[in-house]
What does this fold into?
Amino acid sequence: MSRVRNRIGLGLLAASFAFLVGTVLYALWAERRTLPDPDDAQLVARGKPVYDRHCASCHGKTGKGIGTLPDLSDARYMAGRTDAQLLEKIGLKVREIYLYDVCAFKDTSQWNEFRELFSNNKVDGIIFTSASSVNAFFEIMLMDSDEKKLLQDLQRIKVVAIGPFTADELKKFGTNYIIADVHTVLGAFETVKNCFN
It folds into this structure.
């Protein structure tokens, strides 16, 4: 168990470091995002009262628009808008504030040990603690590995997402993952530990 714990610890360390080197945090997330699945009955049921109260009078019951108002079911129209722009369209005041900006180092030699362990199948699990840690991990690892091989290598280990937003980012890369039951670092560690018990 000690060997596995050390190997998981290295994965956690790498993912946590990736968080530090690859993130731009917004007070309001207004970056590109994937739209929710419109056929997800649970999401539709949750959003229907809000839509009926705030949107249907102008956009109609189906979102197709009334008169010159836009068709909200048109993916091309929606994809070109940030969250901030959509919120402003319904009269909310949105102010984006950069809280901090951290860039990946050009010299990623501190990753050499992890890369070697990873390429030699000596990493059993990785815990991703944020969506930005996922992006930074792929940015750094793809500097000297091709994406297909990296994804194949990730298939053989346990990949844990601290929560649903992190899982959504892993899904974009086509990675299999487990979402921690408790969305904390300790909860994520417990989840990966339970995978090996």
Remarks:
- The CA atoms of residues 142 and 150 lie 8 Å apart.
- Residues 41-98 form one domain.
- The chain has two domains: 2-23+103-195, 41-98.
- The beta strands are 24-26, 98-101, 125-128, 158-161, 178-179.
